[in-house]
Give the backbone structure.
Amino acid sequence: MFSKRMLCQDLPAYVGKEVCLAGWVQQVRQVGRQLAFWVLRDRSGWAQVVINGELAQNAPPIESVVAITGQAVASRSQQGCELQASAVSVIAAAAELPFELHQEVIRAGDEQTFNHRVLSLRHSRNQAIFRVKAAVLQAFRAYLGAAGFLEVQTPKIVATGTEGGAELFPVQYFERTAYLAQSPQFYKQMLVSAGFERVFEVGPVFRAELYDTSRHTNEFTSLDLELGFIDDEGTLMDLETKLLQDIFTTVREQCSSELELLGATLPQIEYIPRVTLAEAQNILATEYGQASPEGNLDPAGEKSLCQYAEQKWATPLVFVTDYPAAVRPFYTRTQSHTPELTRSFDLLFRGLEITTGGLRIHQHAELVQAMRMRGLDPEAYKFYLQAFTHGAPPHGGLAIGLERLTARMLGLDNVRQATLFPRDRQRLVP
Amino acid sequence: MFSKRMLCQDLPAYVGKEVCLAGWVQQVRQVGRQLAFWVLRDRSGWAQVVINGELAQNAPPIESVVAITGQAVASRSQQGCELQASAVSVIAAAAELPFELHQEVIRAGDEQTFNHRVLSLRHSRNQAIFRVKAAVLQAFRAYLGAAGFLEVQTPKIVATGTEGGAELFPVQYFERTAYLAQSPQFYKQMLVSAGFERVFEVGPVFRAELYDTSRHTNEFTSLDLELGFIDDEGTLMDLETKLLQDIFTTVREQCSSELELLGATLPQIEYIPRVTLAEAQNILATEYGQASPEGNLDPAGEKSLCQYAEQKWATPLVFVTDYPAAVRPFYTRTQSHTPELTRSFDLLFRGLEITTGGLRIHQHAELVQAMRMRGLDPEAYKFYLQAFTHGAPPHGGLAIGLERLTARMLGLDNVRQATLFPRDRQRLVP
């Protein structure tokens, strides 16, 4: 039945010819007993279908799947063309919808739209979000591939967490307890040492965090990269700047209609300003009267700092550097003259942290010492420490939260909107 | 220190110039107290380094990380060029190696090479395997992207399994028990119904299988695709044929030296023969005197059938079709005239099943009935069934095991060799 199916977008090329379209009935406008106009939608867009005679008397419910054969004709009432139906086959009739779907935005609360996610994803805004998200991924991989990075897959079932056991989901792994990987951190470092030098991974990460905010879900996609033979965290910030430039350019080119539909504008990036955490806290205190938590920024501070960057440097992006060792993981490299500070950074974008990165310790003895200082047992991390016994180069890396990046690019107010099927403490289905 | 570093492969372009190389010391050949030849390795390959005078008296242990400054010179003894060292900096000295690494194959047993995976991955054969694996992925995505498939990410923490609870790893998800996804099956079908029509996903899948074979690990990478508006499983087999043609062509082009190193040849595919399971069992009985299990093939049968395909059709690939409903999951479409048989298939490649695929049921009532016949409770699958209430198109799809495909392409005798950090019942580290 579908061997001759074509897409709505191709209809204009077939005016005067017999064609077959198949998709979802998005709208039915009944003009009389013998005439109706349907809007048929498929993955390429939509087409108007003119239904005459008896066929017009049996419109299927909205969102039913139909196949329509007919002639492509120049449209009388509007530019473009439409399908003059000669036969309609209802392939799957839809039950009544739980909410009005095809308004400019869906008329239902978050809970209901996520409960009926398959239905709400059919909305043009949601279709656009996930096309942009896929383009981000494609650009991320293309840029890194061209820069000599190898794509890798590391295990998601792990023996120990990267940060000492907090926020881990336990897995019953045969007779043992294992955990879901919070990040590929250890493994990407190990692969640098394994001679690949430059690796990246796109994969799920799992955080058993109790947060219930618009910025957190418990499973998300992490864009991770790690590279060896670097000795300056500036190299990482330069790399991320170029990477984001490239991603934004790709999305602008490939997804212009999606950006327009979503009313989103992507920044032109020349240079992303870099401020130390101390400077950032000072700006927040002086300019906004905001106090910051010890050694960190809070969400309100992240927002204000991005506002400041917009006004001062005309960019919605800002790197925050020189975080204290006390708030960074044990493997973070510290500054040689100021060992209480690290060679790590965060990247804020439109008020939200989207990246953490930095240089790592590459000497075995130093790592063991750093673990002991945190009260971690080196014995539990033997498989990781072993990677530093036979020659590991100086290295560093970063991770970008894909859903956060997508949400900030598109001005979505919740990362869940950039997640097909979000997972949080309340939600395990669909 | 590394800002002027170049790669070994670029050395010939700098003959007569001062350069800096950095990498691992792979070999030290001491010619006298004042002269040594080192082989330095980086991600691009290797270079010979000539060490004169005092520098030659302090060779670091094999696999140490070093940076070497010197002059690129035309090689006296061999074609190409070498580095005449003027300064050597040992960045990370290596401890003694647990086995001889740089023989043609590593001289150690599987257990030891996997225990020291970071080290064994440095072997040129292992580097080559994972470059091929990355190229397979890249080709898979490029082909499907061009064919209108959207890349998606579906949750790995799920409420229920796709097959009724067997072989699931339980996860402690806050106050509840959840499971690790055995496959993105339900979600990719839901996304077809969500209007994306054509989706693919590259992601980890988790199977709590007790098998201890060269074909199984408990976590692997699944290449999944699903598409709507098809009504013939032949469409899926045609698609997979073209997809594999494209993957093999890409790998031949991008990884010719890796294939050579591994002694691997990829088949030219014109057409992949299709035999029904009944025919396959008959061939095995008649030609090889092998009995098959009811409604299936066993590993020995898969091997013999591929041998038969080689001899009869000069191809190492064969589709097996028409599996009985009794051995396929509940969502598999059955044949209208022979409802005890399904519209599903497996693909065998060089003696191993690398794909299962088929048409799926798209009608809600039919799905509910199929679940009840298997003793599954539709209530537990409500989130999945809901996707079939508001118009789901006829659809189907398939999944390819990435490690199995890579292993069969390269003639590796165990899927673990195509897995960076394998997970099985015994192995949770590294």
